[in-house]
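idk why but the lab printer keeps eating my pages so im just putting this in chat instead. protein + zinc ion:
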Amino acid sequence: MRAEKDSVVSFHYSVRDAADAGAPPLDDSRARGEPMLALLGHNQLVPGVEKALTGREAGERFEVEVAPADAYGDYREGLLQRVPKKYFPNAQKLKPGMTTVLTTREGVQRMVTVRKIGMSSIDVDHNHPLAGRTLRFDIEITAVREATPEEIAHGHAHPGDGHAH
Ligand SMILES: [Zn+2]
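predcted complex ->
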């Protein structure tokens, strides 16, 4: 069957910065072993990848270039923040360019990129690490199936061996 809204698609992918095609992938599902599993039409994927998967079948392999607007958005200025080191459990290990999780005063966990390490504080960037980048995805679809009513109700795909909430 062809992938459409409410299909569950399994696929392997690797993603590179389109401007730096020779660099190692930024992310590679094969390195993790399991293919990615996604329910189409429920905002599980960035729009550009969702669009590229739609209408495809198991066994297809293709590349697609996705602009920031259809991936992780434009890089926004003004999202730098100076945070006291005590808020980072792993402060000693951090280096500029690394991503880490910061827990806000409201208790929300946010992925941030370290920009600068000071004596008592660390400057972090709240932009998504891939914001502002045009990305090149290499995608191989391994399976397409109809979603179960439960998956549609939950708004996400469930692995074949089922899962409990
Ligand atoms: Zn679920």
